[in-house]
Amino acid sequence: MKYIEPVKSVVLFLLVVLSVVLTFIIWTYTPDYKYIEQTEGKEILIGPQKKVADVIRPYKAIYRFDKEFTGTVSNSVMEDIMQTFEGWNVLDLMPVNNNLTADSVNEMIRTNNCMTVFFTGEIPYSAFNTIFQFADKELPETTFNRMIIDWSTYSNKDLQVFFISGNNESLMRSHVSLENANQFVRNIIEPAKTYGTFTEVERDGFTSLYIANDKVEAAKYTYFIEEKPELFKDVLFTNLKNVRRTDESTTTEKYHDGMSRMVLDSKLKSLTYVYPAAESSLRIEPSKLLKDSFEFINEHGGFSDDYRYVSTSTSNNQLEYQLYLHGLPIYSEQTMTISRITTVWGDNTIFVYKRPYFSFEKDISSERETKVLPSGSEIVEKIKKLDNIALSDIDDIVVGFNLTHDQSTIVTLEPCWFVIRNGVSTKLTPEIVGGVKNGLE
Length: 441
Fold this sequence. Notes:
The protein is an alpha+beta fold and 441 residues long. Helix content is 23%, strand content 39%. The protein has a 16-stranded mixed β-sheet that branches. It has a ten-stranded mixed β-sheet with strand order 5-3-8-7-6-4-1-2-9-10, with helices on both faces.
């Protein structure tokens, strides 16, 4: 019993010391804010982030050899062309003509030892500044949709490059000094001699169309798709606690937080996001419009498949990207929204954002079929006999995929010929083109 009091004293002393130590730890504790920020602010990505060169890409290239055209729409060739452009030093960019006629453009393209690279949309020069190295620090606030490359003086390590704008009817000229011009000819020009031949379809008062002479062999694909509507909700709304859901119909859901709204259409597998407070009537320059639109989508990995820039409308600050597969554009007779991203830029932020909310997951190879389409020349002859389509109204005639689906997670992509007029695709049905064969016969 005589040890009880000393033991109590020791225990009491230890408890007092422990209390002091714990109090000190609490007062001096500093949380690891870096860790908290990384955990709470974890970046949400719909798909992989991309470079500008991934979404700005030509869809066709034609070459002039000894009064004959060859050409291709091959995806791998378009990639090779863009890789070749990287690092080019573009010198002496200067205006040549601000009232360019269609006949002048046609004559330039017919010039021997010239290749013409076609882009769907009008591209601001500054957007190419991440690909080319422009010698001029101040680039013109204008656009181009075709490049003509004259390789006739390549032996002097010099290429003459022309930039043509169809919308602005303008022509710019520059020079490129190449360290290894022989490599450019070997990798880009020489292979073109083996490409299929193209026919120039002349149109009075309009730029010519360039159409492949051979029949087109293409595959019909069936894909499983992955739907990601919840991810888009998490990306587009800043405070998810305020988001409320309303079922508008059996195929439509609406999300809103009092400031913005997102409508999901499960039938078309697409979404429309609107932030009304950002609406603006101020016109944005094409270079800034493309930059802002690209960064907004890329920030959340919105280029989840092969989307490519196709058009700008500066009158309402609208910009669009088309879905591609294996180098061919994808269209749908149901709606453009199912295969196209549309952004409308507002007051320093997005105003309207429309797009599909699915991405391709897996090709069902057992469902794949080979189709043989008529040649471009045959298609042109058919169109000439039609009353509802005039050649003079056509932007181009292209092979693409017609996307169809029900409300399942499977889509079908059928290769077809399409007429493009004012940026809108029209499928040329078998009745027009005379049928499509299965297999290789």
